[in-house]
Write the structure tokens for this entry.
Amino acid sequence: AQKITQTQPGMFVQEKEAVTLDCTYDTSDPSYGLFWYKQPSSGEMIFLIYQGSYDQQNATEGRYSLNFQKARKSANLVISASQLGDSAMYFCAMREGTYRGKIIFGKGTRLHILP
Amino acid sequence: DTEVTQTPKHLVMGMTNKKSLKCEQHMGHRAMYWYKQKAKKPPELMFVYSYEKLSINESVPSRFSPECPNSSLLNLHLHALQPEDSALYLCASSQDRTYNEQFFGPGTRLTVL
């Protein structure tokens, strides 16, 4: 069974609009972490935001926020005021447990920002 | 210095060649990772080193041989690769295995002929 599901293979959004990228996850471990990474065409993975399973507040980092709904096992990324430079592949990822070090990535969503 | 560097950026090799990929970080991180990423797919973990010791090997074929000579350096030695091993190889580091953020390098794009 897939641990991380990203149901949107591709999205087209007008510049300056807000974007929500969907991510659902599956784990029975009470301790886990959720991540979002951005991968431009150059290939480098850029860390955007992290949410721990015990965090009470939704994580925010500048224009990025993570809409964490634990009961629904959902960790959507919200990008406010999108910019042309936001065009990239976005991966949702999860680490189960505290000490394992292994991150599992979803299949990704290709985001295209239109001028 | 908040950077992970990888060399070379591109590598083309034959199936009988021996080559190495290099990864370096000077952030004092004690965990380092190798990932393999095929086109249009997510990265897949290959190896994790924690405090210079191999802690995770995701059943990677022995034609890939990792090495961590010191806390700043991670190598991936390649021998007798197959064309299907062509991929982007990403290195990452984190403060330790429990730390949340992994910093990735730009990757080495490998083509096996």
Remarks:
- Chain B has no helices and eleven strands.
- The longest strand of chain B covers residues 18-25.
- Chain B touches chain A through 27 residues (CB under 8 Å).
- The two ends of chain B are 36 Å apart (CA to CA).
